[in-house]
Every structure is written in C-alpha cells, then in structure tokens.
Amino acid sequence: MVNFTTRTIGSNVTVIQPKGRLNMETASTLRKQLQDLVDGGNSRIVVDLGETEFIDSSGLGALISGLKMARQVGGDLRIAATPKQVGTVLELTNLNRVLPTYQSVDTAFDD
After folding, report:
1. CB-CB contact of 85 with 20 (8 Å)
2. What gap in Å lies between CA 28 and CA 55, rounded to an integer?
3. Which positions ≥6 away from 89 have C-beta within 8 Å?
4. In terms of pTM, does the model score above 0.85?
C-alpha cells in the first residue's frame, strides 16, 4: 500500500501530497490518511496535487470525503498546485465550485 507524504506548514496546516495517479487503486489510501489526519486533530488540510498526473471519480470521491471530514470538525480541506488534467476534471464535474484551486500550498489558507 502506498502512503502519501505529509508535512506541516505554518502553525496548524497539514499538507498531504499524492503522487502519480489518484484513482481506484490509490483513492482509498488518500481517504484513510485524510481520516487519520482529522482524527489526529489536523482539521486544516491542503492536498498538494502538483505531483498528481491523473485523477478519476474515485480520487474525486476521496477529496470530497476529506472535505466533509475536515468541515465536520470545524476545519477545511483545500487543494493546491493543480495540474491541467486534474483541473479539467474538476471543471467538467463542477467540483471546482466546491474545491477551488489555490496556486500554491503556501497560499491556500491565506484568507
């Protein structure tokens, strides 16, 4: 099973970075890691998609699941550094309205 790298930036923002394909094979890993982060008290999460070359409906489902988990505990999940293919999928599914893209991990929680 693949694990995605995580790191903390600022005082309380956790960054997780899926790499390669975010599909049926890897989406459950992302969902589990997001659940573990939220359960561990990390409710401000940025998913860095800069190294993600492909996403399908399973990957989108994992992102939405993570968003719901974070919001249920008063936090938020944001996505950053979205490659063209991933951005196109978000636009086609209208999920870009729910998960707006930030240019960089460092600016995702600058509001």
Report:
1. no
2. 13
3. 55, 56, 60, 95
4. yes
Distance CA 30, CA 24 (A): 11
- Where does residue 14 rank: exposed (0-12), middle (13-18), buried (19+ CB within 10 A)? buried
Q: pLDDT tens-digit profile of 74-109?
A: 999 999 999 999 999 999 999 999 998 999 999 999
Kindly give, in sequence order, each residue whose CB lies less than 8 Å from that of residue 11, ignoring residues fewer than 6 positions away.
none
